[in-house]
């Protein structure tokens, strides 16, 4: 068993003490398969090092009476100048393992051939990974730390590893620490989620994954009034929520209804979540305008950065917005094993077609109508989102101007992820639609990873230009920040005022 | 009983780990195919030869009775001992962080493995060169070999404790790491490499004997050619220094082991 009892871990940084774990408790029983999820920086690698014993806690107690492997993907600290054989010997000596036996096993399992007697520095990364995996299988541990989806070698070798770890060593404990929810879902019985220095325990892996995904959406969020962690030179730092985004005394508050969304036929294999804001004292009979927010949980959350509920309460009270319903929709969470939530979100939001609008109108709206009467007039319909959700909002209205006329796009990704880069041309060449469009973008906005290099501000400018050429009612607000919610969240009340003025 | 069993078990594990790391270090440093090990001998040998040459050219052998080969060899070999060990331990934990994922590997094991290798190398070099110089007749055999061994042991102990303290400090403070090298150069000057305490002005001898290395070196030289000069040293002082420094070193290791930033 491994048990963390009130474990604290903090590091000294230039900006003072960084508390990675504040008061963490967890238990790994022999033979258990446990997942640990957390976004980057949540303390996954710290937790691994505490589990493996590479680091000691700042405070609290770790009880460990199982032998624990080193993190498998990590490899076991090879000395690059030494051969695979010498490295194997060293690890065997450290663990008191019979050297000859282990060498036979590692040599045949790793399939390194003559390279086994070459310095590890000469290995390809695949060869090093094969040696590392074989080594970790040659020492018998009670508990294996699996810190990444293992992509070792080719498909056949990968399968060999799977058999070795998940079948032959199925009786051992496995701790899978990953940000890949599919991998955790596939292999774990229960899971922990690292969040804000806590380790939250979930008996069901799916619950943990849902929670994890929600905190991913909230990844840059800070509650209202929280101190902001942005760097001092971050241009977004200056954008702070204004009075309309804070609760005001005497303003009646609307309510939230959680909607039951049946399995979608348009986006099958997913779980969709949605919530409905109804204005204070709604009588259930009046026909209400409707505004839809994609990535809805983030916009709705009480401790989220957008405070849409509060903004709506305030603006409805002062007459800037009509009494209206607001629909918050999450993109689909895949129910299948190994699927990526981010891929599903991109499919729903980035695709330049009418599927998403169709999904909203035929699969979500009927659920909304169980709780409120919703106007059919497109002038009573708005749609909003940020980033992929921003282009999604535009696409829905572009494809179905009969259903939506007011578009709010924050940091919209009008770029070629799934063809969205064509909008400037589509708008110029297509028929005029009776839309009112508010575009917000940060001049430093850019994406990382595979989308690095996409010109996001340029995309928004080009869309704005085409809207101007065709005589659309539009606003284009370019902030000084990056691909962030902060500027958009600050101007949200004014954007909504403009969007909904008569 | 259980406690004793677990202590014994811990010692077995620690021995195993240090053995593994020692072999790993040896192979890495001297390799199966390179001649790195020769440097261990070349460096003090070159220094000794250089001093001998100077001595001969300047005809200083007429001025003093000190056997210059033994003087130079003991001087440089001991500098190797206490100077190289801290250098080898500096930042060694940072470089071996990965190894800490093997739970039984702790910073102290890395320190011990490296120290063993360093002491082994310096001792081998000292012994080999002594034998060589004695063999070709440039040097007489030590007068009291046990005293040489004792002095060497005290020096190695001092060097080890110093090395661990310096190693631990270097993990904690970058500034210290930068300062240490100039300090080393100054210390070399005060280490007895180039002087016998007896040859110093009488009123300054007292101050030089505050340097533990000077005491150790005097012991070693006393063992080698004690009949040729009057050695000045205090074994109690060296033992006290070593004990205090060892305590500091152990404290440093403890701080490094539980330190809050291994990243």
Number of helices of chain A: 15
Number of helices of chain B: 10
In CATH terms, the superfamily of the largest domain in chain A is Alpha/Beta hydrolase fold, catalytic domain
Average pLDDT rating of chain B: 86
Structural class of chain B: mainly alpha
**pLDDT below 50 for ≥5 consecutive residues: which ranges of chain B?**
none
**Poorly predicted spans of chain A:** 219-232
Anisotropy-based shape of chain A = elongated
Largest sheet of chain A: 8 strands, mixed
Helix/strand order of chain B, N-terminal first: HHHHHHHHHH
The tally of beta strands of chain A, per DSSP, is: 20
Give the N-to-C terminal Cα separation of chain A. 65 Å
- Work out the strand percent of chain A: 15-25%
Biggest interface and residues each: A-B, 31 and 27 residues
Shape of chain B: globular
Q: How much is the radius of gyration of chain A in Å?
A: 26 Å
Helix amount of chain A: 25-40%
Q: What Rg of chain B is obtained from the alpha carbons, in whole angstroms?
A: 20 Å
Q: Could you say how many structural domains of chain B there are in total?
A: 1
Strand content of chain B: under 5%
Q: Percent range for helical residues of chain B?
A: over 70%
């Amino acid at each position: 068993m491994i048990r963390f009892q009130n474990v604290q871990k903090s590091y000294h940084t230039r900006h003072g003490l960084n508390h990675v774990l504040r008061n963490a408790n967890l238990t790994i029983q022999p033979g258990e398969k446990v997942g640990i999820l957390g976004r980057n920086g949540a303390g996954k690698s710290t937790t691994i090092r505490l589990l493996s014993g590479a680091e000691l806690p700042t405070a609290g107690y770790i009880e460990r009476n199982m032998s624990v492997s080193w993190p498998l993907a990590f490899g076991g600290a090879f000395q690059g100048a030494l051969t695979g054989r010498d490295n194997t010997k060293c690890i065997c000596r450290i663990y008191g393992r019979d050297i000859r036996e282990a060498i036979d096993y590692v040599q045949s399992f790793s399939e390194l051939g003559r390279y086994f007697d070459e310095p590890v520095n000469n290995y390809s990364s695949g060869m090093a990974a094969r040696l590392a995996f074989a080594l970790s299988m040659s020492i018998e541990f009670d508990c294996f730390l699996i810190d990444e989806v293992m992509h070792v070698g080719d498909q056949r070798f990968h399968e060999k590893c799977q058999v070795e770890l998940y079948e032959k060593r199925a009786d051992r404990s496995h701790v899978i620490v990953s940000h890949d929810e599919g991998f955790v879902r596939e292999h774990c019985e229960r899971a922990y989620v690292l969040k804000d220095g806590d380790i939250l325990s979930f008996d069901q892996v799916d619950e943990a994954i849902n929670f994890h995904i929600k905190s991913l959406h909230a990844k840059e969020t800070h509650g209202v009034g929280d101190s902001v962690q942005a760097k001092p030179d971050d241009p977004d730092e200056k954008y702070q929520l204004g009075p309309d985004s804070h609760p005001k005394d005497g303003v009646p508050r609307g309510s939230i209804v959680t909607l039951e969304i049946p399995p979608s036929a348009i986006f099958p294999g997913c779980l969709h979540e949605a919530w409905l804001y109804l204005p204070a004292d709604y009588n259930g009979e009046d026909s209400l305008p409707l505004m839809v927010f994609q990535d809805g949980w983030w916009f709705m959350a009480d401790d989220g950065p957008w405070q849409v509920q509060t903004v709506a309460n305030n603006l409805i009270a002062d007459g800037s917005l009509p009494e209206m319903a607001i629909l918050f929709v999450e993109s689909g969470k895949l129910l299948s094993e190994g699927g990526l939530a981010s891929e599903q979100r991109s499919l729903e939001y980035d695709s330049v077609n009418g599927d998403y609008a169709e999904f909203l109108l035929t699969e979500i709206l009927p659920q909304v109508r169980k709780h409120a009467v919703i106007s059919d007039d497109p002038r009573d319909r708005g749609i909003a989102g940020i980033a992929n959700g921003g282009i999604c909002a535009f696409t829905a209205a572009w494809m179905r101007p009969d259903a939506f006329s007011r578009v709010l796009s924050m940091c919209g990704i009008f770029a070629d992820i799934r063809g969205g880069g064509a909008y400037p041309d589509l708008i110029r060449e297509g028929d005029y639609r009776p839309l009112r469009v508010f575009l917000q973008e940060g001049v430093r906005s850019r994406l990382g990873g595979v989308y690095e290099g996409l010109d996001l501000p340029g995309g928004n400018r080009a869309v704005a230009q085409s809207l101007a050429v065709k005589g659309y009612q539009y606003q284009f607000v370019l902030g000084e920040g990056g691909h962030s919610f902060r500027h958009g969240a600050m101007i949200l009340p004014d954007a909504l005022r403009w969007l909904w003025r008569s | 009983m259980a406690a004793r069993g677990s202590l014994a078990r811990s010692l077995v594990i620690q021995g195993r780990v240090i053995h593994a790391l020692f072999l790993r270090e040896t192979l890495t440093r001297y390799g199966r195919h390179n001649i790195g090990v020769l440097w261990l001998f070349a460096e003090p040998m070159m220094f000794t030869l250089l001093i001998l040459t100077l001595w001969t050219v300047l005809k200083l052998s007429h001025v003093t009775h000190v056997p210059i080969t033994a003087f130079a060899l003991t001087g440089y070999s001991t500098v190797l001992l206490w100077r190289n060990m801290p250098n080898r331990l500096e930042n060694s934990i940072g470089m071996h962080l990965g190894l800490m994922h093997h739970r039984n590997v702790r910073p102290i094991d890395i320190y011990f493995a490296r120290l063993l290798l360093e002491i082994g190398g310096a001792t081998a070099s000292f012994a080999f060169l002594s034998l060589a110089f004695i063999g070709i007749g440039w040097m007489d055999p030590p007068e009291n070999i046990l005293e040489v061994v004792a002095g060497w042991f005290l020096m190695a102990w001092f060097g080890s404790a110093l090395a661990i303290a310096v190693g631990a400090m270097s993990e904690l403070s970058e500034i210290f790491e930068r300062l240490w090298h100039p300090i080393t150069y100054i210390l070399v000057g005060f280490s007895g490499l180039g002087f016998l305490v007896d040859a110093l002005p009488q009123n300054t001898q007292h101050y030089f004997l505050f340097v533990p290395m000077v005491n150790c070196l005097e012991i070693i030289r006393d063992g080698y050619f004690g009949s040729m000069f009057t050695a000045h040293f205090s074994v109690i002082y060296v033992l006290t220094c070593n004990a205090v420094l060892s305590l500091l070193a152990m404290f440093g290791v403890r701080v490094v082991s539980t330190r809050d930033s291994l990243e």
